[in-house]
Amino acid sequence: MVDRVYLSVEERGLLNKILADGLGQRGQRDPQWSAARIALARSLQITEAPDLKRFAEQSGVTGGSEIHARQLTGEGAEQDEDYTDVYRALLSVYTGTDLFADEGEFHRHLQAHLRRGIRDITEEWKEDSSFADYLLRELFFDRGEAATAGEMAPELAERVSRILGQIGVGARVVETREGPRISRFELELAELEDLDRLRKGLGKIAFALGWGENAVTSSLAPGERRVYLSIPRPAATWRTVDWSQVRDALGSPAAKAMALPGCMGTDVLGAPFVFDLAEAPHLFVGGTTGSGKSMCLHALLLSMLTGPTPPELLLIDPKAVEFNAYAGNRNVRGGKPVTSADDAMGALDELVAEMGARQEVMSALDVRNIAEANARGAGLRRIVAVIDELGDLFMTKREIEVPLIRLAQKARSSGIHLVLATQRPEAATFPGLLRSNVPSRIALTVQKASESRIILDEGGAESLLMRGDMLIRLAGRPTERAHGCRVTTQDIQEALAR
Questions:
Q1: Per the database entry, which stretches of residues form a coiled coil (predicted)?
Q2: What number does CATH give the domain 243-496?
């Protein structure tokens, strides 16, 4: 008999949002099982089994929740309302194990699938969008017979041409290219005035195709009267990019020439997006819950660990969850992530002292930066401090801003770099003096245009598509769109074993 399954406070909150905002049952005393069954269905669609350790039982969590077996599977109810054996059969086929013979294993797998399904809905459903549309797209769309991006291209090109004509833009589709999530059309405009008409009509194009106001974008293309028009495709046609697919790009000659090559995913056409963190030289990452921020950080960490000369990593994780897998790695400063605000303050003060010591070494060698110092035998190793949930640190210990600003202002030449991340991008978590000294930014999906402006100094991130969709603005470069790759627990373990 399955007794009950346990959820964290965040997972309970998501189920309540599904009930209230998604299913329109706000204020009703409806148990959470109806939303939980949707989460189970979402997880069972995924071919890869959930990590039983990551999604293990959450009993004893303060503020958490429990769902009894009768509510979730109908166990003990009348025969036509008891679906326990149906779930047991589904999970037995899924795992290739006889879960009728092992009650404990059945419970573990049921718990893991429920929690993974909740995580995926968190990442996929934007709360300001229709939950009914989400269900139709993710649960009821026939994935086995879904059209590929290539199969959809001619039909979409025809629709685009028709819509352009309706808004008075004279244009011919010259070429169509398919990325992991976006179709990019190269247009040849009939007249110069069509450029203004196109830019003013982007919202109408998005509306006609069923997207948000700023989802369709345009940019100038090489050639006479040529323009790129980038249009998102339905989620069912998206192509997931795994870490293993972008990892090889870090071995390219261009990446090998970089001091700290990083790759979080691909550009809109599917080419690996590689940049040098040493040239950034500091990075701010912001995105709401489910936007893919954590996956972005893991991809960046794996990029640095995969390189020929991994830096020393100072990992600060106030929630004590995200960086646990890196504990014990020889490249982690102190041997484990820092989790308390006091310890974080001490670790950053140590970095400030290290910066001062390195500046003295460079002064003695009469050089300007770490590269020149190492060319003269200094043997200094680059250090990257990665802080997840900067907002939590500031709420607990506001004075932590002082060493961060000093490092942001002066640490570049000594080979010390900052990666600061938060799911609450606001003036309080990214104050002006720190912002002016952290020139490189990554914005994943945010809730409001004001949050996008905090990260990028411009809007746009509020219209992204969740699940790793991001806008990247590196120092001295225009804003570029990219899609994050998927990093699994196995990917992290393999990188740490190198």
A1: none
A2: 3.40.50.300
